[in-house]
Amino acid sequence: MDRYRYPMISHSAVAVASTLLVLTQCFPQSRSAQSISPLTSSEKDLVESSRKSIIETGLSDSYFETHFKLVNVLDREADRRVVWQFRVNEHQTTVVDAIGYYTQGNQRIATHSVRNSLGRTFEITRALTRAMALKKMKSCMGNFAGPVVQYGSVDGVAQLVLSAEAKRMESTIQIQHRRERELDAEKSAGNQKKETDVIESEEDNRHPVVVLGTINLVTGKCTKGGGLVAQ
User: Fold this and answer.
1) Mind listing the pLDDT tens digit for each residue in 170-206?
2) Is 45 in a helix, a strand, or coil?
3) Strands (DSSP E) found in the chain
4) Could you tell me the pTM of the whole model?
C-alpha cells in the first residue's frame, strides 16, 4: 500500500479568503540564505524544486526573479520547508512551501504545498497603495485592527489582499442583556434547559464571533465574513 507523508506547517488564514497561507516569522533553526552560505546540495535541491513548483502555477522565470526572494530553508527528514518573500510595489508577505512526499512503488514523489496554497497564479505587477487600501478597508469595515498583507488562493486563484479584523464594540444594551442572561442562568442551575443555556453562553464567551475583511489589492474589492476566535 502506498504511504503518504506530509510535514506539519503553521497557517494564518482569513475566513473569507479560505486558506490563505502565510508565515510572518522566521524559523530559528532553519538556514537563512542571507546569513548562511553556502547552502548544502540538499538545500539547493529543495530551493530549486520549490522555485520550479511556484513558477509552474503560472508565472514566468523573469517575474519570479523580480518578485520572489529566498528567506529560509529548513531541511529535516520530517520537516522540509522553503520560505520566500513575495513583493509587489510597497507590499510584501511570506510564502511558505512545505515539501512532503508520497511513495509509488519504490519511488518517492515530492509534493509541494504551494500548489494548493497558491492555486493558479497570474503576474501581479501593480497594486493599490497601502494608504488607499487602508482607506478602502475603513470605508468597508469601519474601525479595524491588525491589517496584514497575504498572498494565497481565493477560489483557486492566487490573490494579493490586505486582511484585517473589525474592532469588536459591545453596546450598553448588549452588555445588559448578557448580564441578565448570566444571572438567570445562575438562579436556574437546577433546570436542565438553563444548564444548556449556561454552557452555550460559556461557549460564546470562549469563542467570540469576529468580523474579518479583505481588500483585494489589485481590484480594490472588499469582502467581509464572520469567524470564531479561540481564547
Assistant:
1) 444 555 666 677 777 777 765 555 555 544 444 445 4
2) helix
3) 4-5, 31-32, 68-76, 79-88, 91-104, 107-112, 144-154, 157-166, 209-216, 222-228
4) 0.68
